[in-house]
Amino acid sequence: xxxxxxxVCEVCPRGFYCDCTSSCPALGEDGFFLIxxxxxxxxxxxxxxxPILCPRDTYRETTSADSAVACLPCSANFVSDPGSAxxxxxxxxx
Length: 94
Prior knowledge:
There is one protein chain. The protein is an all-beta fold and 94 residues long. The protein has no helices and eight strands. A hairpin with an 8-residue loop joins strand 7 and strand 8. The termini are far apart.
């Protein structure tokens, strides 16, 4: 279950995810901590309940990605596992 739908996280903006175990607070209200910045190696569309891993052989170094397009492809001869914040040399080439 990679995402909670809008009935759980109606106010969760793009680039953030909300705790699926409870309703999400409105921005600026008490309980703001339930809205979390999307971590490196992931992306979070609007209404996300959990961060979604960047695909294999892509990476995201910074926070708050809002779509898979924000996950950048690894350079030639480099690879990454899903959810990576960086790429490493392909061991088949080393």
